[in-house]
Specification:
single chain, Rossmann fold, 6-stranded parallel β-sheet, hydrolase, Hydrolase, Isochorismatase-like_sf, hydrolase activity
Amino acid sequence: MSAAAKSGLEALLTPEESVLVLIDHQPFQFANLHSHEPSMVVNNVLGLAKTAKVFDVPTILTTVLEERGGYLIQALQDVFPDQKPINRTLVNTWQDPNVVDVVKATGRKKLIIAGLWTEVCVAMPAIQAAGEGFEVFVVTDASGGASAETHDMAVRRMVQAGVVPITWLAVASELQRDYAREKTLPGLSEMLMQHAGGSGIALTWETQLLGTHLGSGA
């Protein structure tokens, strides 16, 4: 089990220490997704991916048997248009050296994971990586399972193994941390307007009322 800090300031995510792995957001996997409304998971994983891009968090895209299960959903591929997902045959992503070597090459120990399905392709690598010294965060609302029960049981199992459950807006908030971090505010604000539901609508309204423009530094 990971010996990383579970409380205190060091337990929070930072852009400099984090790496993101997105696992199998493919049509075949979505076809039996019943723990969440599928369009919500799509929205949330897009928000998560765009957050990682805003904060320059290295992101690894993976698929499993894409020739049968379909390519990565297009909207997610469009966030990283020049990146080819790592296509696997192994169910457990963390047993594929093509993925693990890329993660380890970043030198980062805070591993953020989201994928389909929670009970299989998320739980397996999360539990194994936690046992190998990584501080693992699973983004539960950008992941999903075959049923509400399978998703819930997987999250409970991962927590017992030392994995930290988190939601995508919490990831974005921890990476930003300070409103004085002006460099990332325009990109973060644009992402929130697109994917943060009511909060995004309110932010759009606020910018309209204040007469500000994204990317202007205002």
